[in-house]
Amino acid sequence: MAGKLTLKQEKFARKYVATGNASEAYRHAYKTASMAAPTITREACVLLQNPNVATMVDELKAQHSDFQDITFEEIGGYLRRAVDGATAAGQHGAASQAAVALGKLAGLYVEKQKVSVDDAREHLDAVQTLADEPDGDEPEQRVVNFR
């Protein structure tokens, strides 16, 4: 388990695992508007050498490796067998569900979702406050009221 990380270090580690680009991850996690590109690259490399950050990166990569082994063909084959098996067993509802899942996998079905936005900005302001935490080892204690 990775040691104690600041919010920005964790954000950096997660973005680095997602993109594989340390400089991009650094720009995503830290304020870099006044920094030159070589400085960002250097700071990102230093951050990757931090033992706690490196441990978290390794842990995140290990978690994602299992998902990367799954292929489109594997899922499609499983769903086709599920359709065939359910049909043979007379379970037409299950066969129909598997067929729909296969269609979604192929991009034939698109689920529509209704999204509503709460006008209260308190939760968004609280998240922004947390994102702006100082870079020190010990984050400042703050009380946040989530309604």
SSE topology sketch:
Blueprint: H1 7-19, H2 22-29, H3 37-49, H4 51-68, H5 72-88, H6 92-105, H7 122-131
Helix pairs in contact: 1-2, 1-4, 2-3, 5-6
How would you explain this protein's 3D organization?
The protein has about 150 residues and is an all-alpha fold. Among the domains are: about 5-70, no CATH class; about 70-105. The protein is about 65% helix and about 0% strand. It is built from 7 helices and no strands. It has helices spanning about 5-20, 20-30, 35-50, 50-70, 70-90, 90-105, 120-130. The longest helix has 18 residues, at about 50-70.
Sum this structure up briefly:
By secondary structure, the protein is an all-alpha fold. The chain has helices at 7-19, 22-29, 37-49, 51-68, 72-88, 92-105, 122-131.
Write down how many β-strands occur, each being a DSSP E stretch of 2 or more residues.
0
What's the rounded overall pLDDT mean?
A: 82
- In the predicted model, the low-confidence regions spanning at least 5 consecutive residues are none
Percent range of helical residues: 55-70%
The largest sheet, given as strand count, sense and whether it forms a barrel, is: none
Give the end-to-end Cα distance, rounded to a whole number of Å: 31 Å
Count of discrete alpha- or pi-helical segments spanning 4 or more residues: 7
Q: What are the secondary-structure elements, in order, as H or E?
A: HHHHHHH
Shape: elongated
> Could you tell me the radius of gyration in angstroms?
22 Å
- SS class: mainly alpha
The fraction of residues in strands falls at: under 5%
